Amino acid sequence: MKIVGVLSRWVERGIIPGLVTRVIVETSRVDDISVEVAGRIREAIRPGIIRGLAQTIQSLGIISGIADVVTHFLTTKKIPLFNMVSFPATLSIIEELEGDRRIAKIFPDRIMYALKYPTVQPDQVFEDKMARKKFTSTYYTRRIVGAEQANKEGYTGRGVKVAVIDTTAAPQHVAVSHAIPKTTIRGLWTDENGHGIWCASAIGGKYYVDLTYGVPTQGLAPDVTLFTIKSLGFVLGFGNESDILEGMEASAILGADIVSMSLGSESVPDRPEDDPQIQAIDKLTKERGMIFSVACGNSGPGYGTVNSPGAAESAITVGAYCPITGRVASFSSRGPTPWGSIKPDIVMPGVNILAPTVGILDVLEIPRGAVRSSALSGTSMATPHASAMIALMMEHANRHGIKLTTEIVKDVMNSYGEDVKNNDSGWGVLTWDKWKRYSREVLGI
User: Fold this and answer.
1) Quick one: which of 342, 274, 340, 346 has its CA closest to 317?
2) Whole-angstrom Cα distance, residue 184 to residue 108?
């Protein structure tokens, strides 16, 4: 039978009432067949056929770029290198091709999608009924990147120092009551915003159950030594660049191994040497071996939108993807940097994720009200996932007498991530499985 796979089942079941599918035919007469089917397609374009096409588009959930979709769907394409022609077909055309001796095989021209990243299970997705917004939590995102497995193997971040430069100082939430506070904003010690508490909780937060929905949350590396450095504030969560630089300095003085920075500015200089934060990150990475996990920004989906200091060459720059759909978030900034570097380096879960928080975000974001937890989105949420994963990797490396460096983290992804690093998602998702494979095959531990 010439009709192959899914297409043959569609024909047998009578699922093709009109022009609702594309096919690929294998033939040595590419030019002849392409001309003939193009003519047949023009004859077949009638209201009924268009309705069939509309049904197909609707079933695929395509609601934007409709004109482009229709044009693409109706195009006849020759692929002579493989002796193939692709085109839209009615059932009658397919039946005629089935009896054409010039046709070797008929395949469905299947819909293909960009590869998805790891997603949570359906029963790990919840919905805020008032906002009609679906969300998951850090208790489940920690599973899809392998942090839960690392914890089961005995790696919880113990002995690793992580500094979170953000809106937090005093640990105002029970989930991070063990955190060590520091502030670079004179006289301010509390988190009026909540952003910093969320980020700190995602990294080293203890098990905590949301009061509204009973949804559990937990940090990926619950036993890290957690420093909460307040360099942003004033309710809205902003500060000067000098405050951030002081935060980096404080991180170095405290002996932090990893610095998590869910912050940035859309103003990026043309050269890295003209950015003081990038200079500071480069210096501390080179001279002290500190690892910086930095958000790439929420200025996407346009290219060349990576923020500062996420554009730093020596940073692990983190983009966001949705743990419910597996797609890179539209807001996640894309590279390249002004000097042509591919960024981000990785993507991590960063869309609609519940974790402990306080302040204005606790009140305004779902579940609304002062309920001590919120589902937030941003590369800010992805960054602590990366910071915590690196902490788990570092603990494992430490136990085997190996110092984890930024170069090693990037080499893990260069070795086992995406085949080609790109400006949408870098090398993809940093996971415990990738690290264990690298540690075994490259480091020999």
Assistant:
1) 346
2) 61
Domains in the chain, please, with CATH?
Answer: 6-108 (no CATH), 122-441 (3.40.50.200)
The per-residue pLDDT for range 225-261, each reduced to its tens digit, is 999 999 998 878 888 889 999 999 999 999 999 999 9
User: Locate tokens 């469905």: which residue?
Assistant: 108
Residues 6 or more apart whose CB falls under 8 angstroms from that of 71 comprise none
Show Cβ contacts of residue 143 under 8 Å, excluding neighbours closer than 6 positions. 120, 149
**pTM of the full structure:** 0.80
216 beta partners = 209
In 68-113, the DSSP E strands lie at: 77-79, 84-89, 103-108
Q: How far apart are the first and last CA of the chain?
A: 53
User: Each residue of 223-236: b (16+ CB within 10 Å) or e?
Assistant: bbbbbbbbbbbeee
Identify residue 115 by its one-letter amino acid code: L
Given a contact cutoff of 8 angstroms between Cβ atoms, the answer to whether 4 and 106 are in contact is yes
